[in-house]
């Protein structure tokens, strides 16, 4: 079997926000072909993990390492991480006035290509039209300003459209299911499943089993108090849905507290 083309390795990661330690030694490895889900109560550091990987300046890594195919991610600027093949679908996508959806995505695609090898306009339009149809998006959204006036569901579909257009090697999806009705959830899940391949790895951060009814993860990790305290297969998420987090707390002797506010 051929070796995986992509590996994101997080070792003993400690992260602070304004002097308060949020992550207290996170270890996880995501390879191409794998889908991982991270679940946990509010305030345990799940969103902090995604922001730290992508280099948000608010989050200070005080210990540990993040490597992507052997390269030190912590030495990369945010745009370098994106060009290397890392992608973050944010919990609260930003609005950018004056830049259309299509302009933003074409620029993002070309920023990853060498000069002289930019995607042609016709190929870009064909690809975008095809993927918007799969995601059941109004074609007019291509010419609307990025996320401006979009509903919550439209923003989440648009994040998946960006994922499908940019074709990253490792993606982090931060609560991509929050605020979605069941129909939108199915469409978003369809887009993520369309990406599944040996060249694509994914970390899904979610509170709910319902998303994992449509996207079957290879691994499920439970995060509490800034650490991953338990890992398993899809059955772990099903048990959490049925019994909540108390059984893990009792099993591991974890007190009922959180590590701080998630960003």
Automatic annotation (TrEMBL):
GO terms for molecular function: ATP binding. InterPro entries: AAA+_ATPase, ABC_transporter-like_ATP-bd, ABC_transporter-like_CS, FeS-cluster_ATPase_SufC, P-loop_NTPase. Keywords: ATP-binding, Nucleotide-binding. Gene3D superfamilies: P-loop containing nucleotide triphosphate hydrolases. Residues 8-250 form the ABC transporter domain. It holds the Pfam family ABC_tran. PROSITE patterns: ABC_TRANSPORTER_1, ABC_TRANSPORTER_2. Belongs to the ABC transporter superfamily. Ycf16 family. NCBIfam families: sufC (TIGR01978). PANTHER family: ABC TRANSPORTER I FAMILY MEMBER 6, CHLOROPLASTIC. This is Fe-S cluster assembly ATP-binding protein. It comes from Bacillus chungangensis. The lineage of its organism: Bacteria, Bacillati, Bacillota, Bacilli, Bacillales.
């Amino acid at each position: 079997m051929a070796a995986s083309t992509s590996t994101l390795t997080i070792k003993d990661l400690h992260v602070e926000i304004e002097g308060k330690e949020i992550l207290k030694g996170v270890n996880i490895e995501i390879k191409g072909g794998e889908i991982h889900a991270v679940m946990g109560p509010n305030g345990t550091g799940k969103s902090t993990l995604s922001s730290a990987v992508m280099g948000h300046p608010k989050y200070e890594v005080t210990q540990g390492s993040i490597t992507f195919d052997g390269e030190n991610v912590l030495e990369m600027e945010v745009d370098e991480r994106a060009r290397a093949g890392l992608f973050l679908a944010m919990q609260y996508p930003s609005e950018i006035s004056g830049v259309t959806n299509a302009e933003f995505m074409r620029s993002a695609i070309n920023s990853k290509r060498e000069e002289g090898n930019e995607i042609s306009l016709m190929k870009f339009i064909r690809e975008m039209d095809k993927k918007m149809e799969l995601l059941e998006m109004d074609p007019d959204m291509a010419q609307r300003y990025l996320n401006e006036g979009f509903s919550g569901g439209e923003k989440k579909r648009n994040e998946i459209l960006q994922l499908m257009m940019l074709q990253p090697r490792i993606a982090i999806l931060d609560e991509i299911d929050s605020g979605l009705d069941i129909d939108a959830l199915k469409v978003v899940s369809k887009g993520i499943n369309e990406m599944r391949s040996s060249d694509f790895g994914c970390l899904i951060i979610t509170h709910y089993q319902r998303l994992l009814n449509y996207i079957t993860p290879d691994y499920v990790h439970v995060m509490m108090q800034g650490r991953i305290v338990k890992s398993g297969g899809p059955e772990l998420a099903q048990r959490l849905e049925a019994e909540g987090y108390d059984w893990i707390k009792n099993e591991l002797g974890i007190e009922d507290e959180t590590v701080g506010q998630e960003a």
